[in-house]
């Protein structure tokens, strides 16, 4: 098993943290994982991205040319990374703010209205958790229970009240990601 | 043991504290700011001292002073900042003071770029300051190794009373991976009877200087230092061999490019090209002897040196391989990271040409 993912979006949309969540969940499942942030002038405004690899073997190159999945949280991300997904791979599109459809026919497209669902749930900040749900449902790369445990451990003390909200966001995302 | 997720720079900082480093002096520069940031919070909590100095020069001289007093001390920077520290490193080598200098390399020369590079190889392995001196130079290729080697660096520094360089590239500094904080067995180290930390009950004052104004005295001092460097060469060489047993094309790379090379070698093997990777972990001392042995193997047809610089380690590969086998080169620089497909192509071409 090897997943090579590029996640991209505006700063503040949580792409870096979706990436970190994937790594944390992978480590919880005894897999190897790596996370590389975009580290250039672009992180000072504009679109940020990170590359995550999850594997059951030692990870070599931590950057990828043709990822198995691309997670696009904004329009610029889709424009930049759609062309790089490997044939047969999957593009996740935050359809709340990206009006475009995936043009390529040799990749799967999963449309997730992240921000709409997050707003429905009453907190726009959980848009990234919706996308994480869609990702694990569509790829089967990580178990739902692993993410749920992680969410429970992520929000403790005063923040513990955020656990049900995030679990719900995860679930709604999974519904979007489930293969038809 | 529990695996924890750490960013390279923070793992280096935490490793230093765990190794007993109690003085950190630095000056900010991208892409290693997470080291001083981490130190600023955690060093005081560990009973140590964190100072953001007014310049790199000040920082390295604070390390010089702290090391002279016998404390485990460290500084970190990135390429242009490390250039500024060379004077202090030369002085510490001359005075036989242990210290750890971390260089998270970025694109150069000059201010260059803030992305990962390896253009400081010559500086790190040839002694970047003046005079005849050497520094053991450790080059981690993953975060586990960054943590392990940084701890080891303090032991090596104390054992030989010499500065040790941790030479990471910007990608190792920025990436996150799971690591395990292993139980370490520290080396058996001599007492620091030389430290200038107050005369106490001693019958003499410890005096630390790099000035030996008479040539014979200075030469004798250099020859003493040279014995230590010979010891380091004998004892401290490290490397890793990946898929090398039956390899026909041997990719030589350290740090991030060695990981790219590993993936390239795996891909090439699927295509029937027997590729392997030789990864120096210490770039000084360089594992010449082992690389030479590999060059003597009948199965080995060609070497490909891969760097994020324009052929600096290539000199060492050539020194080791000599005329035994052809040596080819592929490099990116200025903050560009070689793609797997580029390394694959270069290795395959070298292999075809040599067959």
Structure description:
- The complex is a heterodimer of chains A (180) and B (355).
- Chain A is of the alpha/beta class.
- Chain A is built from six helices and six strands.
- Chain A has a six-stranded mixed β-sheet with strand order 2-3-1-4-5-6, with helices on both faces.
- Chain A is globular and about 40 Å long.
- Chain B has a seven-stranded mixed β-sheet with strand order 3-2-4-5-7-6-12, sandwiched between helices.
- Chain B contains 13 helices and 14 strands.
- With 355 residues, chain B is of the alpha/beta class.
- Chain B has helices at residues 8-18, 34-45, 56-68, 79-84, 86-94, 121-125, 143-160, 170-174, 215-235, 256-270, 288-296, 313-321, 340-354; strands at residues 4-7, 23-26, 49-52, 73-77, 99-105, 136-138, 163-169, 176-179, 239-242, 249-252, 275-280, 282-284, 302-307, 327-331.
- In chain B, helix 3 packs parallel to helix 5.
- Chain A binds chain B through residues 20, 23-24, 27, 32-37, 39-41, 58-65, and chain B through 3, 5, 31, 114-115, 170-171, 174-178, 256, 259-264, 266, 335, 337, 339-341.
- β-strand percent of chain B reads 15-25%
Number of separate helices of chain B:
13
Percent of residues in helices of chain B comes to 40-55%
**Rg over C-alpha atoms of chain A, rounded to the nearest angstrom:** 15 Å
Query: Which strand order does the major sheet of chain A show?
Result: 2-3-1-4-5-6
Q: Give me the strand/helix succession of chain A.
A: EHEEEHEEHHHH
Largest beta sheet of chain B, briefly?
7 strands, mixed
Number of helix segments of chain A? 6
Query: Structural class from helices and strands of chain B?
Result: alpha/beta
Strand count, sense and closure of the main sheet of chain A?
6 strands, mixed
Computed Rg of chain B: 21 Å
* End-to-end C-alpha gap of chain B: 46 Å
Distance between the termini of chain A: 22 Å
List the secondary-structure elements of chain B in sequence, H or E: EHEHEHEHHEHEHEHEHEEHEEHEHEH
């Amino acid at each position: 098993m090897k997943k090579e993912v590029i996640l991209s979006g505006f700063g503040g949309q949580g792409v870096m943290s979706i990436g970190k969540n994937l790594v944390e969940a992978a480590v919880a499942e005894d897999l190897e994982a790596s996370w590389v942030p975009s580290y250039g002038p672009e992180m000072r405004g504009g679109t940020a991205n990170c590359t995550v690899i999850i594997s059951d073997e030692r990870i070599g190159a931590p950057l990828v040319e043709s990822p198995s999945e691309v997670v696009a949280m904004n329009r610029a991300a889709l424009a930049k990374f759609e062309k790089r997904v490997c044939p047969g791979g999957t593009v996740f599109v935050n359809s709340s703010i990206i009006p475009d459809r995936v043009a390529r026919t040799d990749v799967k497209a999963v449309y997730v209205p992240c921000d709409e669902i997050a707003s429905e749930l009453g907190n726009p900040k959980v848009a990234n958790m919706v996308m994480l749900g869609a990702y694990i449902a569509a790829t089967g790369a990580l178990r739902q229970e692993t993410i749920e445990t992680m969410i429970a451990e992520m929000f403790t003390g005063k923040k513990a009240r955020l656990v049900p909200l995030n679990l719900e966001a995860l679930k709604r995302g999974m519904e979007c990601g489930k293969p038809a | 043991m529990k695996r924890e997720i750490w960013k390279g720079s923070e793992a280096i900082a935490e490793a230093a504290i765990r190794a007993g480093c109690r003085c950190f002096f630095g000056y900010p520069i991208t892409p290693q700011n997470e080291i001083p940031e981490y130190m600023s919070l955690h060093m005081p909590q560990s009973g140590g001292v964190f100072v953001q100095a007014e310049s790199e020069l000040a920082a390295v001289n604070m390390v010089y002073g702290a090391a002279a007093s016998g404390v485990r001390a460290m500084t970190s920077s990135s390429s242009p900042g490390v250039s500024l520290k060379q004077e202090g490193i030369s002085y510490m080598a001359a005075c036989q003071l242990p210290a750890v200098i971390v260089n998270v390399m970025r694109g150069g020369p000059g201010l260059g770029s803030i992305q990962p590079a390896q253009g400081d190889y010559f500086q790190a392995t040839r002694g970047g300051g003046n005079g005849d001196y050497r520094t053991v130079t450790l080059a981690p290729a993953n975060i586990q190794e960054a943590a392990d080697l940084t701890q080891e660096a303090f032991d090596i520094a104390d054992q030989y009373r010499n500065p040790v360089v941790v030479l990471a590239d910007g990608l190792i500094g920025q990436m996150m991976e799971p690591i395990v904080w292993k139980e370490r067995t520290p080396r058996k180290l001599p007492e620091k009877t030389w430290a200038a930390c107050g005369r106490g009950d001693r019958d003499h004052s410890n005096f630390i200087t790099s000035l030996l104004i008479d040539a014979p005295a200075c030469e004798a001092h250099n020859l003493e230092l040279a014995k230590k460097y010979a010891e380091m060469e004998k004892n401290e060489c490290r490397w890793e061999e990946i898929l090398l047993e039956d390899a026909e094309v041997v990719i030589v790379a350290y740090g991030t490019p060695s990981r790219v090379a590993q993936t390239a070698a795996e891909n090439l093997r699927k295509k029937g090209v027997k590729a392997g990777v030789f990864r120096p972990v210490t770039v000084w001392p360089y594992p010449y002897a082992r690389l030479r042995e590999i060059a003597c193997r009948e199965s080995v047809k060609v070497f490909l040196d891969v760097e994020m610089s324009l052929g600096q380690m290539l000199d060492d590969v050539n020194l080791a391989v000599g005329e035994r086998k052809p040596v080819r080169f592929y490099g990116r620089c200025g903050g560009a990271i070689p793609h797997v497909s580029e390394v694959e192509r270069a290795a395959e071409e070298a292999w075809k040409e040599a067959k």
